[in-house]
Amino acid sequence: MPEENISGVVLTFFSTASSVGKTLISVNMASELARQGYRVCLADYDLQFGDVCNYLKLPFERSIKDIIDVMKRNPDASLKDQLTTYRYGTVSFDVVPSPEPMEDAYNVTVEDCKKLIERLRLMYDYVIVDTTSMFSVLNLAMLDLSTIVTFLGVVDFIPTIKNMKMGNDTVKTLNYDTNKIRLVLNRSDAKTRISMDDVERLLGQGFYHVLPNDFQSASESIVTGVPLALSGSDNVLAKEIRVLISRYTNRVYKENADFKQTIYQSANTEYSGKRQNGWLSKLFH
Length: 285
Description:
Blueprint: E1 9-14, H1 22-35, E2 40-45, H2 52-56, H3 64-73, E3 84-88, E4 91-96, H4 110-120, E5 126-131, H5 137-145, E6 148-153, H6 158-173, E7 181-185, H7 196-203, E8 209-210, H8 215-224, H9 236-249, H10 259-262
Helix pairs in contact: 1-9, 4-5
């Protein structure tokens, strides 16, 4: 059965450093968009070390390789039945898992990955792509395909900031529309002696959005497999993710006093196998 031609929005999460929270934020972005009633698919394109299914405590069923194999054998086959669905109460979204075993990652081509995203955007309002932290051929292809790229960074260590600057400078050379790449700071109030103002001067631009540090809530979310956006708690990180989504969707975010009462009786828990002065800028002259 052919997919409905809806030309969905592709949101890619990208970074030049590991452990900056791409998977955490992309999972919560998918969860909140689904909670708002959008049709959402989250694709784990960290093909070797993807962690979306682990985060969501999803049983492993079919990976991106299996989905692509079906697409090749029968181009007209519905992909919906091949995807893994995450459900929490009344909210659900679909997932494209990364390969398992890991060697299957080498049997998935960049062209195949592009074709899959092009198919998914005909089926969903939002396709969210979680990538690995490098300028790989696959990641560059995803940047090209994306409607919006969230370039996620943190300011915890000097090497991380150096990589963010180099990555940001590289992205600028690709001549994308200035509104396509959104520089987002994660864990903004983590205890560090590095000033955000210093980092923005170094980058030559301000951050599009700033997400707060909420280590306890994030850790609980990872342990339970329940995204912050669906937990019903009043954590500040979930609120700021909703604000970020409102900027992406051009829908004004309003705090919902009945939020805790609107969800979610149970989760899918099945799981198997699975301001200082400007010293910083001097370092990069």
